[in-house]
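pls read this protein:
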Amino acid sequence: MLSAEVSLYPQKTTRASQIINESIQSLAQHGVSYQVGSLSTRIQGSEEQIWSGLRTLFDKASASGEVNMVVTLSNSAAED
């Protein structure tokens, strides 16, 4: 089990919120659980789910232009 906290920062756009929301929706196809916060999204799942989900998240956001993505990964049991 892995968990990731990820923040997306679309650059040079007035559609940042839309790009972020559409990218987060792409996580559903990977079977991960996720909680959306005001500055970041926490993702939990198997190692394969997390890595493929992060790749999809970045690919979806970068399809709209330049983007920075900050990720913190943990393999420890997360406390809610």
About this structure: The chain is about 30% helix and 30% strand. The mean pLDDT is 94. The CA atoms of residues 7 and 70 lie 5 Å apart.
